[in-house]
From TrEMBL, chains A, B:
This is 2-(3-amino-3-carboxypropyl)histidine synthase. Coiled coil: none annotated. It comes from Halobellus rarus. The gene is dph2. PANTHER family: 2-(3-AMINO-3-CARBOXYPROPYL)HISTIDINE SYNTHASE SUBUNIT 1, DIPHTHAMIDE BIOSYNTHESIS PROTEIN. It catalyses: L-histidyl-[translation elongation factor 2] + S-adenosyl-L-methionine = 2-[(3S)-amino-3-carboxypropyl]-L-histidyl-[translation elongation factor 2] + S-methyl-5'-thioadenosine + H(+).
Length: 344, 344
């Protein structure tokens, strides 16, 4: 990554090797075109956590391509989704490029670069199909593999599967796409769903949201096929609800991130409960909540902080639905995964 | 703090005991008056870190005093000064109450409650005067003790001192007030300055900014008299500058907090240095900077993060002035404390 200091000027046609990595398609040409078209001077670049360290090299290449009149500013804010735009940087730049996620809501100002992966999904699909006993199968993936989604459907159909796909709701950009907080694309008429993508974050959410379905993970990044197992998570959820049943003072968290606000739900809780306090913040972290002497918390922001990071907090943290169980408004068997709908 | 559940209605004249602690003056009457005058429905409350846990009890008392039509929202954002307003909460509430700091800039929307202390400064002043060999003395304190400042001046004059005080610049509200980043009130014609207040945070900054003066600390909270000693800090600063001299890639931090932005300084650095990258963020933390593969950082935000928290970061972090030394633009002996002037 650290090459010789770049020479100046427009090098688009010189064949000079650019600095950025080749694992992901940063769509530099499209970005440069938009910058030129809008005559932009200040350009904001926001990367998700895992790719922040690639940011400077991408900025280097864009500087080479755009010349000295354009200032690039890297967002140093944590970022975990298209729900999580750096609105400060967005307001203060002419063009704002958000990498790694597909549009949750289109805007003139924002260029979304979903970062399509160059990984080949078919070798791992070859292994996965042996684990799909039925003909009917749902297919879902993340923004990173959307560039191959049509091919994957065809490939499965060629092998005799009846592939069910669905666009989901307006929080999702593409047919077959899932987010950590939204699995509406898996509301399909099949008992098995094939998830293609890296890691277990998305398929675990999918399996929690659709406990009646078998969720098969075909992971082309780590080259493994597994079945999503939510047992540990579900035990943790029931444990948190039980511990919160004794709580007197409740902190009700309203998340100020652009795509994570559910004020109506938060206000409903504090209106009904005199011992509930509305607390607003962007990053919901153990350190920040430790400042408040509460017995339990309800998180109306990102449900994955509640389910995945829950055990790291010093007091039980529940989803709004779990809160209603803990205070006795709903029965224990109504416990379900908290999903997030709509944009902002 | 946890008393019986509050009964409803306006209890202002019932003599009911309120829930908040009595250490600080929260000026509830003034807040209630402003809420009523503005017919406010949504009220934001922001406390500094050390007092966040008092927030819910203060909210309880305000709820009692204002009735059910007013919704109180507690800011869960970190807060370290009047430079650090929760602008999100401010924009979304009718009245925004900022506790613990005096106004950096007045605004219709904001009620500043400096939280005057009820501690008596005179017993410790009695001890401190023995350590002041000269007649000429500067006197400074923090917002918390401003309610006694006039008395302190008189008290010292009665004992034969020639007391020098100064308003400082427009970042400061009161004569004799210091901030962690601004000691303009100590630009006075005396070789010794008496600081009255809790802790060493302010007097250490004062001593770094005015290395030629003796800074005597009279701490009425911990009941000690000491002389500010900056040796450890100064060694750390020289060490950081030396380690950064080999840096190739620089991250230049622009802090997005309302009173901590110095964009001109940040842009000047990146314009002059092709290996410098502008990074924007609100909280400047070791975790956030670890995401960027830089050799060193320049922090144009709060200077106290650089000097006090510097050793916690994985790479050297310098003030803008220290950066100029590290890159060879200024001599090593120009090293000085980074102060912050103006408002926003």
């Amino acid at each position: 990554m650290s090459q010789d200091a770049a020479t100046e000027g427009d090098l688009r046609n010189t064949g000079m090797s650019l600095r950025h990595d080749r694992e992901w398609d940063y769509e530099l040409d499209r970005i440069v075109e938009e910058i030129e078209e809008r005559d932009a001077n200040r350009v904001g670049l926001q990367f998700p956590e895992g790719l922040k360290r690639r940011g400077p090299a991408v900025a280097d290449d864009l500087r080479e391509l755009c010349g000295d009149d354009v200032t690039f500013m890297l967002s140093g804010q944590p970022c975990y989704g298209a729900c999580d735009l750096d609105t400060y940087l967005m307001r203060r730049t002419d063009v704002f490029v958000h990498f790694g996620h597909s549009p949750m809501k289109e805007s003139e100002k924002i260029i979304y670069v979903p970062l399509f992966s160059n990984v080949d999904p078919f070798p791992i699909l070859e292994e996965a199909v042996d684990e799909l006993p039925e003909e009917e199968v749902g297919l879902v993936t993340t923004a990173q593999h959307m560039n191959r989604f049509g091919e994957m459907v065809e490939w499965l159909e060629e092998r005799g599967f009846d592939v069910h796909t669905r666009r989901g709701d307006d929080r999702l950009t593409y047919e077959g796409q899932v987010l950590g907080c939204n699995y509406a694309s898996a509301d399909i008429d099949a008992d098995q769903v094939l998830y293609v993508g890296g890691g277990k974050f998305h398929p675990l959410g999918l399996a929690m949201e659709h406990p009646e379905k078998k969720v098969l993970i075909a992971d082309p990044v780590n080259n493994v096929v597994t079945v999503a197992d939510t047992e540990k998570f579900m035990k943790q959820r029931y444990g948190a609800v039980h511990r919160a049943m004794d709580a007197e003072k409740w902190g009700v968290i309203f998340c100020t991130k652009i795509g994570q606000g559910r004020m109506e739900i938060a206000e409903e809780i504090i209106e009904d409960n005199d011992d509930a306090y509305l607390i607003t913040m962007d990053e919901v972290t153990p350190d920040r909540l430790r400042n408040f002497a509460m017995d339990a918390f309800v998180n109306t922001g990102c449900p994955r902080i509640t389910t995945d990071d829950g055990p790291q907090f010093h007091k039980p943290m529940l989803t709004p639905g779990e809160y209603r169980i803990a205070v006795g408004d709903e029965p224990l068997d109504s416990l379900s995964f908290d999903t997030f709908h709509g944009t902002w």
